[in-house]
Design a protein that fits this description.
Length: about 170
């Protein structure tokens, strides 16, 4: 379970970083870095290529922006799953009201689940090293599986609202 969840986290991280690189090609604000005023300003700070520095800040595995976004996605996936279970439970028992205190129950579950499987003692960094050494075909296979799992969590949460109709 731990390895599988780290695989999903790894490919969420890689996917976010590749999306960042893709959006660099169409990002109009990066043209501002080519102006002489900004070049001088960055030269004073000791930065030769600000786009390269921006890419480095996204790519860092431990403190990078892509890593934080992927971590947020992992928390969101468990939260969606928990809310989906709650929706099904409320629908099957025909409870007519939604208790907002469920949020205070779901939040610690999601945080603890991800803490123990991913973030405790930076487990994900050792898994990242292991996954970097995978073969290309294996990476492609697991990337598709990870995308499928992520989409499953989203569709499960959306599909659980069908049970709300049964409450009435």
């Amino acid at each position: 379970m731990e390895r599988f969840w780290n695989l999903i986290y790894y490919f969420a991280y890689k996917g976010d970083y590749k999306l960042h690189l893709l959006f660099n090609k169409i990002n109009p604000t990066l043209l501002l870095y080519k102006l002489n005023l900004s070049k001088r300003r960055f030269a004073k700070m000791g930065v030769d290529n600000p786009v390269e520095e921006l890419n480095k800040s996204f790519k860092k595995e431990d403190t990078g922006i892509s890593s934080f976004r992927a971590g947020g996605l992992m928390i969101l996936l468990i939260a969606l799953f928990c809310f989906g279970i709650v929706n099904i439970y409320l629908g099957l028992l025909k409870i007519l009201y939604f208790n907002a205190n469920v949020i205070f129950l779901v939040l610690p579950i999601t945080l603890l689940f991800n803490y123990f499987l991913l973030f405790r003692h930076n487990k994900y960094l050792s898994y990242f090293k292991e996954f970097d050494e995978m073969g290309r075909a294996n990476k492609k296979k697991w990337a598709w599986i990870s995308l499928g799992v992520i989409l499953f969590f989203f569709f499960f949460a959306i599909g659980s609202f069908v049970f709300w109709i049964q409450r009435v």
